[in-house]
Amino acid sequence: MNSYVQALAWAIDDGRALHFDLLGRGAHFFRTLLVQTRSEPVLLVQDLMWNTIITGWQDRHRQHDVVEFASFINDKHKLPLVEGTWEARTFLHGEGLIKDTGHSAQPLLLHMISAPPGLAPICQVQSLVDSWHAQEDVHAFTVLPPVLMLQLGRFHNADGRINKLHTHVEVDEELWIPLFNGAGIQDTTKCYYALSGDSGAATTIDRRFRAVKHRT
Fold it and tell me: Is-contact 108 151, C-beta < 8 A?
């Protein structure tokens, strides 16, 4: 919950202006959070405006999966900040045929590939985006959101057992996101700048996720 709010606060403050217009019904809360001078840390669970925003979210006092929480808030409030659509297309009879579609209110899932035992590869986020794009059915956006949320799929099912991939991932400063150019399968790319991420690395004492800023 805290890391989600911190990441959105960084996203709307680009150093030149505060883009409250992209936050829909959450604008008033973030305006207060960022503009007012506070002499002590903000306790979200005690903030009346924040509790109004997360109405419907169960057990708000425990630690949550940040992707699940982001999906809930983004979809509930239809935040313009993250609104976008993607499609999966194939080429049939001379034209692009839509096979699947999705919305970026749900963070875009990028599947990671397991490495042979004994190897410790380094993975780039851009390579995961490229793999998502270059599937049998070509994946790309039709409408790009102002802010794109990505999820690294570290868990996979192997013969009924859920395993976590510990591949080291490097966050590219720039990410080139595919965008369909018309109704076919031809596409172009648009550059996004990596702003922040949620790090699950923690000590045995503190296992909370943290928002990590990648760009200032």
Answer: yes
Q: What is the pLDDT of residues 55-107, one digit of tens each?
A: 888 777 666 778 888 888 888 888 888 999 999 999 887 778 999 999 998 89
In the chain, what is the straight-line distance between the N-terminal and C-terminal CA atoms, in Å?
22
Report strand pairing: 168-170 vs 122-124: parallel
Query: Which burial class, exposed, middle or buried, applies to 162 when counting CB atoms under 10 A from its CB (0-12, 13-18, 19+)?
Result: exposed
Question: Structural domains in the chain?
Answer: 2-80 (no CATH), 84-213 (3.90.70.10)
pTM (predicted TM-score)? 0.79
CB 153 within 8 A of CB 112: yes
199: how many CB neighbours lie within 10 A of its CB? 12
CA separation, residue 45 to residues 6, 31, 42, 48, 72 (Å): 15, 18, 9, 8, 17
Q: Alpha carbon of 181 to those of 34, 178, 197: distances in Å?
A: 38, 9, 29
Contacts of 57 (CB under 8 A, 6+ apart): 69, 72, 73
